[in-house]
Amino acid sequence: MKAVSFGSVFIISLIIWGCVKEFIPEIHQSPYLIVVDGLITNQPEVYTIKLSWSIPVREKTSVPLTGCDVTVHDDLGNVYQFRESSTPGTYNSDITTFQGMAGRTYTLHINTKNATPKRYSYESFPVEMKPVPPIDSLFYEKVLIKRATLEMVATEGCQIYLNTYDPDVDCRFLRWDYTETWKCQIPYANVVNKICWISNNSNNINIKNTLSLSESLIYRHPISFISNESDRLSIRYSINVNQYSLSKNEFLYWDDLGKITDNVGGLYDIIPYSITSNVFCIEDPDEQVLGFFSVSARTSKRIYVDEMFSGLKNIYYPECLDVLIGTSYPSSGQNEWWWVIVYYGLWMTHHKWCADCTARGTTTRPEFWEDPVYK
After folding, report:
1. Residue 47 · residue 100 · CB < 8 Å
2. Are 228 and 234 in contact (CB under 8 A)?
3. Which of 198, 215, 301, 305 could form a disulfide with 135 if both were Cys (CB 3.0 to 4.6 A apart)?
């Protein structure tokens, strides 16, 4: 009886195992879908409109849309030309002739000319640039990740918040992004470049509206969390936060995009769907266009973090010491190896960033960077 039961289980298991194979769903994709990515602000800077083709699901490199005529029109009848840069598919404004202004309404015009077989023209709906309030305060707080024990010190992280308030209630929809910069130092002697500054841009969607409030007040809104598993907080950290005003349509666009990016990958996650763009094809209004033409006033604020945090992990450097070579210097001509000095001898490493911080950042001090003032 036991033998029969075991044999049955084995046969059933074999059948199940044999039926498992990769499933690749059939995906119907329409060619020649134009992707528009543009932002106009009220800051004196070069504005950029990026045009490209949509790409198949399994490909990673986008195809730029070159040779187009790109202009932005305002509600006063002014026309501003965007010229294609040395980067294909990237069209830039002239900083000497065009600066966005809150209260003005802007419309994007695209003529593909000979860039597409259809030679279609595209246009955005008119978008008013809403005024944006300043960031009242940008601040951080220590966060206890894990309490101290007899064997280990406490583990702490850093949470960045902001407060903002619009007394005129002109701006009900807001978006934030940021650029973070931190100073790092390689902990070994005689390396090529020891001290660098590293910068990263945010890659998450951070939006909020105040429609449910009697006043346009946002308090302790989370911007970023820095864990202990990074060298960001090891010396000095800085974050510059941008605050953008949004129209209701653009807020809904970012909200839909966030739902897709936050809920993909699982069997029961929401199915990706088409997000409505504010750009349409003049000759064929039923043609689908991807992306959005954004018109936002912007304000910014920067803070520095110098405080010591407990339990920081130098996650980058423990794997640096690959081969101990004693006290004699390595021979020249090491193409794939770098050597570093630790207090008990010379080590060889396969990782360039262990001996040269420019593999992760730059030795050029940022123009905005300020050293801490100690009292």
Report:
1. yes
2. no
3. 301
- What's the whole-model pTM score? 0.84
DSSP 194-218: -EEEEEEE--S-EEEE-TTSSSEEE
Contact indicator for 254, 307 with CB cutoff of 8 Å: no
Q: Which two tokens stand for residue 354?
A: 């262990």
Compute how many other C-beta atoms are within 10 angstroms of the C-beta atom of residue 64: 17
Across the chain, mean pLDDT equals 85
- Identity of the amino acid at 128: E
Predicted pLDDT of residue 214: 83
Phi-psi region of 184 (alpha: psi -120 to 50; beta: other; left: phi over 0): beta
pLDDT digit string (tens) for 192-226?
Answer: 899 999 999 999 999 999 998 888 899 999 999 99
Report the chain's terminal Cα–Cα distance, integer Å: 84
Residue 2 has what pLDDT? 47
DSSP class of 189: B
Q: Are 236 and 257 in the same domain?
A: no
Q: What average pLDDT score do residues 339-360 get?
A: 79
Per-residue confidence band for 151, with pLDDT thresholds at 50, 70 and 90: confident
Do 174 and 212 have their domain in common?
Answer: yes
Q: Residue 140 belongs to what domain range?
A: 135-246+303-311
Same domain for 122 and 267? Answer: yes
Q: Identify whether 232 is part of a domain.
A: yes
pLDDT in tens, 248-273: 999 999 999 988 877 655 545 555 55
* Residue 274: other Cβ atoms inside 10 A: 9
- Distances in Å between the alpha carbon of 279 and those of 52, 94, 250? 14, 22, 12
β-strand partners of 51: 36
- Say if CB 235 and CB 182 are below 8 A apart: yes
Q: How many CA atoms lie within 13 A of 240 on its CB side?
A: 12
* Contact (CB, 8 A) for 41 and 98: no
